[in-house]
Amino acid sequence: MIQVEHKWIKEIPVLHIFDERSGLEALPTVFFYHGFQSQKELYLPYAYLLAQRGMRVILPDAPMHGERWAKETDTEQAIYFWDTVRGNIDELPILVEALGAEGLMDMSRLAVGGFSMGAITSFGMLAQYDWLKVGVCLAGSSYYGHFAKALADGVAKQGVEFPFDVDARIRELAPYDLSAAPTKLKNRPLMMWHGKADDVVPFQYSEKLYEALVEEDMTDNVAFMVDEKAKHKISIEGMLAAVGFLEEKL
C-alpha cells in the first residue's frame, strides 16, 4: 500500500510518499516541486506513480506557498518569485540531511523534478549540486537571467514598483543559471518536456538549452519531449514519460 505522510522537516512542510512494504529501507528518492501559486498536494499523482515503482518521494511546499503562505498577495508572490526559487534550492540540503540521518534515502540515487516554477527550481539545483543524479524539468527555464528580466519587465508594466534593485537581484541568480554553464550538467540524465504553445514559460527556453547541450556533445542522457499543441499544462503522456524516465535512470 502507498503511504502518504505529512511531516515538517525543520520549518519546511512536506508530503512523504512511499510503499509501506519498503518504508524503512534506503530508497532512491525524488524531490518534486510544485508550480507558482500552487501547492504540494496537487502533485500527488506523480508521487503515487513513482512510489509504486519503488521510489521515495518528497513533495515540499515552496516559500510563500501552501502551508507556508502568509497571506502574501499575488503581486508580492510575483515580486519575490526568484526568492521563492532560491529558497527551494537553498533548502534542499536541509531535506537531504534530515532524511539521510533517518537512513531513508539511497544517497547515491537522488533526483529532482518539477513543473513550471518547480522545473525552474530543478534546473537551478542541477547547477548547484553535483550529487544529484537525475533531473526532470517540465515546462521550465534554465535561463534565469533572461527569464528574470522578462518577468520583471512584465510586472513593471503593470505599474508595480520593486522594493529592491532588480538588476542587482538578477545578477545574484548567476550561480543558479545552468544555461550559463551547461557543462555543469556533467552528462547526468535530464528529461525536459515543454509545450510549443506555452504562454507562461516560453518553449524556446527548453529548445535553446537542448541545442546548447547538443553543441557540447552532452545529449546522450538527455530526453527532450515536445508537445506540439500543449500550452502551460502537462499532458498525461508527458507525466507518464517523466515517471518512466525517473524509474529508468534512478
From TrEMBL:
Alphabetically ordered keywords of this record: Hydrolase
Alphabetized NCBIfam families for the sequence: PRK10566.1 (NF007857)
Domain Peptidase S9 prolyl oligopeptidase catalytic: 86-235
Pfam families recorded: Peptidase_S9 (PF00326)
One annotated GO biological process: proteolysis
GO MF annotation terms: carboxylic ester hydrolase activity; serine-type peptidase activity
This protein's record includes keyword Nuclease: no
Highest taxon in the source lineage: Bacteria
Protein name as it appears in the record: Peptidase S9 prolyl oligopeptidase catalytic domain-containing protein
Annotated InterPro entries: AB_hydrolase_fold (IPR029058), FrsA_esterase (IPR050261), Peptidase_S9_cat (IPR001375)
Family annotation (SUPFAM superfamilies): alpha/beta-Hydrolases (SSF53474)
Keyword presence, Lipoprotein: no
